[in-house]
Write the structure tokens for this entry.
Amino acid sequence: MCGQFLVSEEIVDSLRHLVPREHWEEIELDLHPHVIYPSARTIAVCARDQALNLSVMTFGFASSSMNRRIFNARLETASSKPLFARAWRSNRVAVPATAFYEWTPDKEKITFDEPGRVLYLAALALDDQFIILTQDANESVAPYHHRMPVILQEDQVPAWVLDSAQSAILGQNASPALHAILPEEPLTLF
């Protein structure tokens, strides 16, 4: 359920259109293509002083009761769960990604992307940590996995991040048709 996603240089160009440069925190991440996994740090579009800002955040909420990070929340129940309710009301963020990964029941890693576009993953933040919201898989992801991240269109990001009245509506938008990249078949000698 979206435990890893890819970030690449194309994201910076997309963010220049979305967030004015004066609203970027000191971003000192190495933005060559790399996989983001729970506990890794990456860029997120967040709200500060009623404007979109760019910040570096950690993927996953640290849990003292578990020895692992919580990295997803179900869209259908996040607003009513005690752990996520405050973030739902006032700390929604969008996390740009080039692609995300899901695993089949047979443990095959499938890559999903929308060629030529940045995916904005709807997320909730506490302090400098975020979790990704998930929903039932659409037709392009369902053959491989039953859940997928909630994906926002670029023009939906400001309303998701800044307008709590719009958050419930945007969270139920139709996800785009995605391209699935299957793992290569293993080579055999016979």
